[in-house]
Amino acid sequence: MKRPLTLLIAAGLVISPWSLSVNAQIVRPANRPTSRQQATSPRLATPQSTASPGLIYSPSGERAPSFSQMSGATAPGQIELPAHVQMDYQFSRAFPRGATPDQMTKWGDIPNNPQFVGFHKMTLRELSRSSGQDIAGVPLNEIDLIQGMTVEEVTQLYQGLEDKPLDQAPKILQIAAGIANDPKGTLKQSKGAALTFGQKALIAELAKKPALKGISLERLSKGDWGNILTPGEQGEVAKILTKVNGKIPLEKLFPMTQGVIVGDWESVRKQAQAEATRQGSKVLVKELMKNEKFRKMPLGSLTLEELDLEETLPGLIDQPIATIPKIADKYLSDIPGMSDVPVDQLPFDLKFTPSKDDVIARMDIAYAGPTETPITRVISGGTKNQKFKPEPCLQQRCSHFELDNVDGGGPPSKVSGKAWVAGKDQPTPGGKGFLALVNNGKEPAGIVPWTTAAHVKISLENIKEGGNGEPASAQLWAHFQFCKKVPLLGLQCTPHFIPFPTPFKLKEKSLMLIATSGGLPAYLQNARNQQNFCTPAVANALQANASQDSASDTAAVSSPSPDQHIAPATSNQADQNLRQYLKRIAAGESTGGTDWRQHPDTGAYGVYQFTPESRATMLQRTGIDPWSKDRATADKAAVFWIQMIGGEQGVDLLGTIQKGDFAKADRILSPKQFTSLPGGPEQSKIWNNPQSLQVYGPNGSAPDGVPTGATGFGPCASTSGFIGPEGDGIATGRLKNPTPGAVITSGYGPRVPPAPGASSFHAAVDLALPLGAPILAADGGVVEYSGVKGGYGNYILINHGNGLATWYAHNNANNVQVGQKVTAGQQIGTVGSTGISTGPHLDFGVVEGYKAGNLYSGQAVNPRKHVRF
User: Fold this and answer.
1) Lowest mean pLDDT: which of 24-33, 324-333, 515-524, 715-724?
2) Range in 100-109, 294-303, 460-469, 522-531 the model is least confident about
3) What is the pLDDT of residues 501-525, one digit of tens each?
4) Share of residues in the chain with pLDDT > 90 (%)
5) What is the largest CA-CA distance in the chain?
6) What does the alpha-carbon distance between residue 665 and residue 686 come to, in Å, rounded to a whole number?
7) 3-state secondary structure 259-292
8) Residue 860 has pLDDT above 80, yes or no
9) Mean pLDDT of 543-553
């Protein structure tokens, strides 16, 4: 069984098919490592120019803007949901003319999709450091997020706080209750009594408007708010600001009952202080919380100038921002540092895995100077209403790259001659629903290779025509959007307004993914038959040759006898076992593939009952729709999911199933996705009958009717990837572990063949790591082979010049080329599963007696003889 070629795209990153941090320029595995791992990862220097097709690592040095530096709204606006539409956060909002995106979008708008996982793990300390500040020393009165936080929200920050005595509570709570020193000895709201009746009535009236929830008087006093705030009201707001703390959100400015101001926070605080004095400092926090007004009192009603965040709210600074109570209601501008940090410093992340039916194009001719417009034969465009549409360029300047067939010849295809226009040269429509108001509904021209469901768009920038021996080139940028599903109103999306300059260039003759097979736009529906980079014919040819090549390669270095190679019957058995297991899953999930209906509670749908969240992950990573009624497509999705879970658990799960160990597969899969399997939390009643376990077991004969297209799809091995820098080529004579932290899953010597076509004598060691993890040169030397090598998939061989050579196989990408010198410890590729492989790993071999230029010279020896793993 072969797997699809994996391409990762990430931002602060764009990765293809490796994972690399733009900000720190540190190579790292696809799964985020620990801080210690990051600190010891090898760094990349700027690589040499190369004629190899693909992306070129060449940072432009250009930084992305911060949210506050982006274009402001051209008109005031407000979003107010109907009263009967309920959301899990305050979706309604308002903004003035000139509002930047951080003043229009809320934390709750950030989806829970895989590419935004980093957002939800980010802390205030990390964010402030990214913006060049240290929030630890900032007084609380300068932090809008703290100004609007209530006493009740403080108690929700700390587990079990309500059951503790007040003298053990955070200092800010002690100050609020009057048992700790208040530096100024007074409340900011003490002047509230000076407000006129009309001013109080205005505040109460404005506070009733859902669109103004979370907005402070200070913000309301500036700019043109349109119909939501008249000039007269705004003038009165400016007067009120002289008497109150204008940073407190409008609805929290005073205690209110049924929309009417009742007293002020000074009197509320005195009530709490009296109770604390009466019961003593050992009074339990929950006793004070019985006072509803005290619970709702904002911290901004206290004097905060001399209070330190770490001292008064310990631990908050290192807590994930997403866990702060009511954070979803906050505008991004309320979160300290969020407005000022360049957006390419934020932790966006996106992964997807294209398959053999994806459309790949070749970068042909660049036009960077004045061009005749309009340019109508375009492949780039916008995503208005979340539907991608090519948009002709009508601007005075339309820099663009023309595309061609992958091989640069043959009859014209659907992409031949199409123009990919520079994003900055052509604003296009984007966004859907209310959130389309962000960035004035505009986004740069570009393409969405993995459908609009992935919420990321790719553009070309800084297009150069080349000359004087230099090829034409363009910088690759990624652009992200926020989308949120609103009950009754459907999906609401911003345009792709968050730009990321990646460290990669496309150059003339580079190959680039244009569309995944799961999301081909209408004008490319037939393109996959003309333009496949990895066609079925090529895939089948590789599959047919893999066993022969693998056998001959192994024979050359270890000389096993012919009967050591796997028999064809084993391949049939592995295929049968996989089909049987898919039927086993479908039996419980969808009554054998006959009940596709949506689950009323989870929304799961299809043969394998993927939830909407799992479906979104699948679409983003592969372009494969697990809800498809095409059985083969649904089957592909299930197999991918099995592989993904196996990778997360460090288990060759696909190989386990192919070997017929269904019980082990059940134990791993049933808690994760397919919960109806035996032992799962929603175990199907079908398994109460022991006979069912036999029918759907490895030796059973389950009924047909379930997808049967699981096998026969997979990658053409591809060496596409950035070419790393020239090294020193110096061999130390001491080999080091090429994948530190990896687990040895198969040692040197005789073994049971792990996959059809694999040898029963293993002349190397298998080192398991996540897909995309870096592979390091075991020692310095010269690359003598870098390419596809039969069953080894992507393969590298390095001659260390002292009779030793090392090979590295099944790579996801090779980052070196033949003749290149490498330094010990330099990244040469990334961990993959190309060729005959059952999961992401490195096949690492050592040859003694190697002679330069003779790939089959020498003898393969146990790598443990030279390397301490």
Assistant:
1) 24-33
2) 522-531
3) 887 888 888 878 787 655 555 556 5
4) 29
5) 98
6) 18
7) CEECCCHHHHHHHHHHHHHHHCCCCEHHHHCCCH
8) yes
9) 31
Return d(Cα 19, Cα 538) in angstroms, integer.
27
Q: Is 61 helix (H, G, I), strand (E, B) or coil?
A: coil
Rounded distance, CA 243 to CA 241, Å?
5
Cα distance between residue 340 and residue 135, in whole Å: 13
The neighbour count for residue 751, using CB atoms within 10 Å, is: 15
- The strand ranges marked E within 39-153 are 56-57, 77-79, 93-95
C-alpha 310, offset from chain centre: 31
Distances (CA, A) of 826 to 44, 414, 728, 781: 8, 40, 10, 11
Residue with tokens 């959007």, as numbered in its chain: 481
- Angle (CA) 247-333-86 rounded to 5° is 90
CA atoms of 246 and 222, how far apart (whole Å): 12
Please say if the pLDDT value at position 235 is more than 50: yes
CA atoms within 13 A on the CB side of 594: 6
**767 by DSSP, 3-state: which?**
strand
Give the count of beta carbons closer than 10 Å to the beta carbon of residue 661: 16
CB 442 within 8 A of CB 428: yes
Listed range (350-354, 433-437, 582-586, 606-610) with the worst mean pLDDT:
350-354
Beta-strand relationship, 381-384 and 427-431: parallel
Place of tokens 């450091």: 129
Which positions ≥6 away from 143 have C-beta within 8 Å? 135, 309, 336
Average pLDDT of the chain is: 77
157 three-state secondary structure: helix
Q: What is the rounded CA–CA span in Å between residue 193 and residue 647?
A: 63
Q: What are phi and psi of 561, to 5 degrees?
A: -75, 155
CB atoms within 10 A of CB 236: 17
Task: With a cut of 60, say whether residue 702 has pLDDT above it.
Answer: yes
| pLDDT band, very low/low/confident/very high, at 587 (cuts 50, 70, 90) | confident
Is it the case that residue 362 has pLDDT exceeding 80? yes
In this predicted structure, what is the pLDDT of residue 538? 32
Angle at which helix 662-669 crosses helix 631-649, to 10 degrees, equals 80
- 834-854, pLDDT tens digit by residue? 777 777 889 999 999 999 888
pLDDT at 474 (0 to 100) = 94
Closest CA to 423 of 356, 500, 489, 336: 500
Q: Peptide bond preceding 444: is omega within 30 degrees of 0, i.e. cis?
A: no
pLDDT for residue 55: 65
Quote the CA–CA distance of 701 and 654 in Å, as a whole number: 20
Does the pLDDT value for residue 557 go beyond 90? no
Burial (0-12, 13-18, 19+ Cβ within 10 Å), 826: buried
Q: Is the peptide bond before 825 cis (omega within 30 degrees of 0)?
A: no
Q: Which of 391, 617, 384 minimizes the C-alpha distance to 481?
A: 384
Total Cβ atoms within 10 A of residue 238? 14
- Which DSSP string corresponds to 9-37? EESS---SSS-B-TTT-BB--SS---HHH
**Count of alpha carbons within 13 Å of 249, Cβ hemisphere only?**
27
The rounded distance, in Å, linking the Cα atoms of 765 and 127 is: 42
**Cα angle at 383 between 380 and 389, to 5 degrees?**
50
Is a pLDDT exceeding 70 seen at residue 356?
A: no
Higher pLDDT, 498 or 605: 498
In sequence order, what are the beta bridge partners of 388? Answer: none
Query: 125-161: string of b/e by CB count within 10 Å (b at 16+)?
Result: bbbbbbbeeebeebebbebbbbbbbbbbbbbebbeeb
Number of neighbours of residue 24 by Cβ within 10 angstroms: 13
- Is the four-CA dihedral 24, 28, 31, 37 of positive or negative sign? negative
